[in-house]
Amino acid sequence: MNGITTALEFLPEILVLAGALLVLLLDVVGVRRLEAFGGVIVAAFGAALVAILADLSVAPFAGWSTLPAGSLDVGPVGGSLYAFTSFGLVFQGIFLSAALLVAVASLSRTSNEKGASVFYALLGIAALGMLLVAVSADLIFLLLSLEVTAISSYLLVGYTRRESRGLEAAMKFYIIGALSAALSFYGASLLYGAYGTTSLAVIGHSYPSGGLGPLAIVGYAFLFAGIGFEVTIVPFHAWAVDVYDGAPTDVSAFLAGGTKKVGLFAFFAVFLVPLLLIGGGAATASGSFRDSLQILIAVFAILTMTIGNVLALMQDNMKRMLAYSSISQAGYMLLGVAVATSAALTGATLQIFAHVLLKGGAFLVVAAAAGLGVGPMIADWKGFGHRRPVLGASFALMLLGLAGIPLTIGFVSKFILFAATVQAEGLFLWLAIAGLLNSALSVFYYARVLRTMYAESPEGALTPTEEVRGLAFDGLGLGRAVAIGAAVVAIVGFGVDPQPLVQVMQAAVQHFVTLGI
Amino acid sequence: MTIPILSLSLITLLVGTVACFAAGRWARYVALGTAVAFLVEIGWMISQFTWAGFGPTGVPSYSYGETYAWIHLYWLNINYSVGVDGLSLPLLLLTGILLLVTVVYSWEEKKRPSAWFALVLMTCLGCAGVFMALDVLLFFLFWELVLIPMFFMIAYWGGLRRRYAALKFFVYTHVGSIVMLVSLLVVAFYSHAPSFDFSAMYGPARALALVPQVFLFLAMLFGFGIKFPIVPFHTWLPDAHVEAPTGGSVLLAGLLLKLGAYGLIRWGLELLPQGLLHTQPIIFAVAFASIIWGAFVALGQRDLKRMVAYSSINHMGIVLLAIGLYSSLGITAAVLLMFAHGIVSALLFMVAGSTHHAFGTRDLATIRGITPKTPALATVTMVGALASLGLPALISFPAEFLALLATWDGIGYWVFVPLIMLVVTAGFYLWMMQRMLFGPTSGIPEDAHDLSQWEAAAMAMLVALTILYGVLPGLLTNVIIHSPLFGLP
Predict the structure, then answer these.
(1) Which of A64, A487, B20, B221 could form a disulfide with A54 if both were Cys (CB 3.0 to 4.6 A apart)?
(2) Contact B76 A343 (CB under 8 A)
(3) What is the ipTM of this complex?
(4) What is the pLDDT of residues B402-423, one digit of tens each?
(5) Model pTM?
């Protein structure tokens, strides 16, 4: 394998890295316009997304693939650190969609904003880490890539340096993140001790044959906790609300829509491989172990969605409500891991993508509304649907999607996820019922916001902030309008015709399941 | 080439909904046009209707059927699949009629008319979709779609406690939907049906073992029952009705309650007949409880609207009873009852709305002897009340008569339960008429006014239909008998 082919394999990653470095370079040569930085990053993300879609042979980009023939879905070669799988590529696409949404929306911020270059460069580097997570075939490579994303995210939360709340959130995020990284790496070192390798595939495959010694069990427990922090699995969730609430709202959108999903992918990579492999033709002893592991994950899934929902129900602050709802959504995605069939994994992947559009979009609307003078509390949204019919309707659509109401992607994803859970039969029927009851509970707090937005009359006039005066679309700005509009189109479009999307995801999941990487 | 008339009629409503949002002050004309077009399409369907009978494998086929692939995974086959038979056509007709009269009744809506009319159309779109859908996902999609416009109608146009009522309505019915969805999914997966299509599920579902059939049917009874609503899951209904605007109440009572009954017949009775037969005692107990509870609680109401709401619970109890009988006569009676209740409750909720409009209150203890002041309102009130208590030659009579006959056929002397409760029902309607319509006038404000022309037009249509179908119930029964259900004992 010569250097150029290897470079071409990493084309998306290289594009994103080049974008981030170019932004820093522009800053050094004296460019001070946010639009320039944003333009570079948006172009880099867009090009990388096209490259990924081409690698996945998605029309109309099929045939542009830069991956050498026969390098996709073959599994890790030797002790390779990375492997290209269509499952990983699908997730790269999901991550980049989240990053792109935020990058485009942020174009609406003040043109001469201080720190704009830092913001966009960090966004690029965070995205780079996300892309690398999705190609890792090695535990250490995976955890290091996670750190790339995590460290840039801490900085993103506090980059404005204006608000003490943002700094406090960044600090909290950093301390928790450091703890989580320490736990993960410690777990990885134990696994290395147990198996003598850090290759995910080899570790996964040793499971059914070699069984699970005490060292490995402790190692996995540490990894569960470490990655659990990233995914906000209860009881490792408490940081998320303060961080999402304290971060600049655009960054919250990126955290909820993007970085959290990276944790989920890591979770899949570490825990699903053994689960899937044990399921396939292993001895009965490991079969029962698989069952207990599945039940354990199912318990965490139910805990996560229930506690997230109950706490979301009690919030008066919009961002905190959305943050808790994010936690509960992580529970739904864990369902896919607990059920561990390719059907459920397809559902979970779709749910993750849906969540990027719905929750990322919702945070972007909250960011836009804050600029327009809407306060942080839910009560401040009184009559918003009448003040800003289009923006209000977009927000309503996103909330309805999160609640799983038809003609949105949230409906399709929940339907497929729960159908797959029911299909797995046995105990999973109760898991599906628990999940659906939770879904009903969540309707309560989404509907409450809708009620505030539409059934109550506005009080007083909104006073837009200085920054949004004179922006296009009545203070919304072109970037935000495009990002929110794109999210709305995707939410409805894939809600009506999900077939193209689920087809790609199903194919990828099936490769993942057969390959076991 | 055959015309895809079902999709066409759904598209009509969809386009109407979108157009209404955009039409501003012309929305009411768009809504009226859409309603008329939809009614014409339904009328065409009924006029051309011949039931296709059973297919070669004993699976019923559906008229105007359309099937297109929608979501296809290796473990999941979902189609866009629609079709109608004698069970759904009368309910589609009811949808069209209630859409038209609601639009006419609320012609002078002043509060955000474009959104109002769009939501009315969207509700009817959801209902029509439910009555046509022959695929689990499609059915569930339309089923949930109905919740959204109704939530907003109550939450924005409703009365004083509208926020509470809207949320309660949304959460209650959503929980019901979820139980319903899980049971449908279980039916599909556990019977290993090749797809979520009704026809594909028909054979495998019926072949399920008895125990799962019983549990699944009970789950469906709960899921669909919340929409009925059955006692004790009925408490959302009085709140929703009292707080809903008149048009919302009309659609809520006239259409939304029918969704539960229709669903129970289509997806419960047809797919899990053994489950129904072995849970009959439970169904009857629930039905009797709803009949008795609804009647007695209605008797104790001072608020006219609340009274009509509770009488709806009573009437839907009779529908459940008729479904539970599992006989051709029972199903015919159930469909006829649903149609009749749709028309009559719509009329009575309009009466309640107009009463409030005219006198500023619906308190039966306050307003007395309204006839001299508002003769038109008094007349329709009387027709509505008489129809609801089952006076011959009005629409409810043939329906209730058939239901009682079927009950007698099915469970003998138990027929006295609904029969005696009919007397109670008659009692509270007569009492209401006596106080509200006749006797010395009191409690009526000086500026009370009679029906506006639009209100009068809407009510006149319903009165005409009440009499038409009361005299000629054959118009409906001739359609109803063209369904696979008519082959029952």
Answers:
(1) A64
(2) yes
(3) 0.85
(4) 999 999 999 989 999 999 998 8
(5) 0.90
